[in-house]
UniProtKB/TrEMBL annotation:
The keyword Zinc does not apply. This is poly(A)-specific ribonuclease. Keywords: Cytoplasm, Exonuclease, Hydrolase, Magnesium, Metal-binding, Nuclease, Nucleus, Repeat, RNA-binding, Transcription, Transcription regulation. It is found in: Cytoplasm; Nucleus. It comes from Rhododendron griersonianum.
Length: 310
């Protein structure tokens, strides 16, 4: 059987500050594309272009004498894609059998530079600029620092829609972006918050959300005994419940990539097994003749949770 995939794609090509691509693929025999977001004046509907948000932010918050410096810090050509898909299979919700089964997928590639911790967190906070499930053009709404997760919260509340937030966040477990996504808030004393020369993360009280996001691979910690599970647990960090690494280069090994899901509407059915460092190091590092990327693949299978009558 031939399976056809559809892609929503934005590609940037440039220097070291440029991220080369962000894509969301889906099976056309299983899902249909419902909506992508219209962001600012971007020609690419459905793309969160951080540069346009950076321009709006500096216009609103930064004194004119500092705008050039601010834009130089914030403009990094990173993007996020947000798409809403509708399942073609039968919905099993108890309270309304046959109801449309939607899922919102946010996919991103956050800035890589370790000295730009404020920019990383700002991009994570900004990923979703849509204030409601009405999918109105974002030209009607000002960009603000807290609109990513707040937008997702409103979509989840108004449409009762499962969420997937995934990508290369260039943030290790315990960093401020990871804490915000995984725990819903950032400790005001977190060391990452010290780096904020433009004041784009203030007030700190806005660095919070109510989405029940959980890292898919953290479900390893909740699984019982089974064939192969102990081997996979050895490839997990017990202190973070995340993989020991998703990125393995000559200079760095650690976890930067995640699949977050809304735990009140989705449950993890299965996960792609993790690779071990020894097998990758036989070729020194990634990429290698066997593995084409310096990141390993993460994959999770989910099931929509039945909802009972209230």
């Amino acid at each position: 059987m031939c399976v056809i995939y559809v892609v929503v794609l934005q590609v940037f090509n440039g220097n070291i500050n440029t991220i080369d691509g962000c894509a969301t693929f889906f099976r056309r025999d299983r899902f249909s594309h419902v909506k992508k977001y219209e962001v600012g004046k971007s020609l690419f509907r459905g793309v969160v272009e951080f540069n346009k948000a950076a321009q709006s932010l500096t216009d609103a918050l930064v004194p004119s004498v500092q705008k050039k410096t601010a834009l130089s810090r914030l403009v990094k050509d990173n993007v996020a894609l947000i798409v809403v898909l509708e399942a073609k299979f039968i919905n099993q919700v108890i309270d309304n059998p046959g109801k449309r089964q939607l899922v919102c997928v946010a996919n991103t590639h956050v800035n890589v530079h370790q000295d730009l911790k404020d920019v990383k967190l700002w991009q994570v906070v900004l990923q979703n600029p849509v204030p409601s499930y009405a999918f109105l053009s974002c030209t009607q709404f000002p960009f603000s620092v807290h609109t990513l997760l707040k937008g997702l919260e409103k979509i989840a509340a108004s449409a009762n829609i499962p969420m997937l937030v995934c990508g290369d966040f260039n943030a290790i477990p315990g960093s401020a972006p990871h804490a915000l996504l995984a725990m819903g808030k950032v400790d005001p004393m977190h060391p990452d918050l010290v780096v904020d020369p433009l004041g784009i993360l203030r007030p700190l009280s806005k660095l919070a959300h109510q989405l029940p996001l959980v890292s898919a691979y953290s479900s390893f910690a909740r699984m019982g005994v089974g064939l192969g599970l102990e081997q996979h647990r050895r490839r997990m960090d017990p202190s973070t419940n995340e993989p020991l690494f998703t990125n393995c280069t000559r200079d760095f090994i650690g976890t930067l990539d995640y699949i977050f899901y809304s735990a009140d509407s989705l449950t993890v059915e299965s996960l792609l097994e993790l690779l071990d460092e020894d097998s990758l190091r036989k070729d020194t590092a990634l990429p290698s003749p066997e593995w084409s990327s310096d990141h390993i693949a993460l994959l999770a299978e989910f099931r929509c949770m039945p909802r009972t009558r209230r």
